[in-house]
Design goal:
Oligomer: single chain
Largest sheet: 6 strands, antiparallel
CATH superfamily of the largest domain: GAF domain
Radius of gyration: 24 Å
Shape: elongated
Number of strands: 9
Order of helices and strands: HEHHEEHHEEEHHHEEEHH
Length: 266
């Protein structure tokens, strides 16, 4: 920033935005005194700023005496508009590349289109035996790791409706070929938060997938690691790689605005 640029800053707007930033999950309401103290301004100035923000729909009064303020729905819309403008794949690319680099195994991102998973990004590994699936490739969701974890974002009823009249082809011994078995598999995937396929399409290839969620918690994509069973398929290695995939998916989800629900300990 040059020496002249600060001259163009509007102090009132700066303070108004600063008031909005004072609200946090731990501090949901503020009084005029709270605002004035936090910003180092007089109470009269805090009142004018709060009145303006209330008039514009960014703050609401709360409390029995109406002396406290809280964020109004219009303030939330600013965040939602930002999050809805994020391109999921664009956000995910550096994370998927880092996953590939740290494991030396091919990593991918896919989205669901009906009963198929469509590959939208690929971070290729230089292993002799590795996944050769290209961007744009489509595979049946019911028989793939990414496809099943994408289905885990649907309810059982929604899965049943999606697959009404659809033939479930067998690609390996682990493939669900009935709607009942598919719903059972997806329910187990949903409970775990990840899924694993062995030799689902190519013999000797293992795939581990986890869901990517948006700010609402909806499953909007999936990522995976896909590589040779000779490298991946030992208990210790699978545990390590599964954690890496799950952590990477969670990191991407957080960038899209998702907040994991708090864990309750009985």
């Amino acid at each position: 920033m040059s020496d002249t640029e600060p001259n163009y800053i509007a102090p009132a707007l700066q303070r108004g935005l600063a008031i909005l930033e004072l609200f946090t999950p731990q501090r949901r309401t503020l009084t005029l005194s709270d605002m004035a103290k936090a910003l180092g301004i007089g109470r009269a100035s805090a009142f004018r700023l709060a009145f303006t923000l209330e008039h514009l729909g960014y703050l609401d009064r709360t409390g029995s005496d109406g002396k406290a303020y809280r964020l109004a729905p219009r303030a939330m819309q600013l965040g939602y508009h930002y999050l809805s403008g994020l391109d999921c794949a664009e956000v995910a690319i550096p994370f998927i590349d880092a996953l590939r680099d740290s494991t030396q195994i091919s990593a991918h991102m896919g989205v669901r289109d009906g009963t198929e998973v469509v590959y939208v990004y690929r971070a290729h590994s230089h292993m002799t035996l590795s996944s050769n699936i290209a961007v744009g490739y489509r595979l049946p969701a019911h028989a793939t790791a990414m496809g099943r974890i994408l289905l885990s974002g649907l309810s059982d009823d929604a899965i049943a409706q999606l697959y009404t009249g659809v033939r479930l082809d067998r690609f390996s011994e682990a493939t669900a070929v009935t709607l009942t078995s598919l719903i059972q598999q997806v329910a187990a995937d949903r409970a775990r938060g990840w899924t694993l396929n062995r030799s689902s399409f190519v013999s000797g290839i293992v795939a581990i997938a986890a869901p990517v969620r948006d700010h609402r918690g909806a499953v909007v994509a999936a990522i995976n690691l896909s590589g040779p069973s000779a490298v991946m398929d030992t208990p210790a290695t699978l545990d390590h790689l599964t954690a890496k995939v799950a952590d990477t998916a969670a990191s991407i989800s957080r960038q899209l605005g998702w907040t994991a629900p708090a864990q309750h300990i009985d």
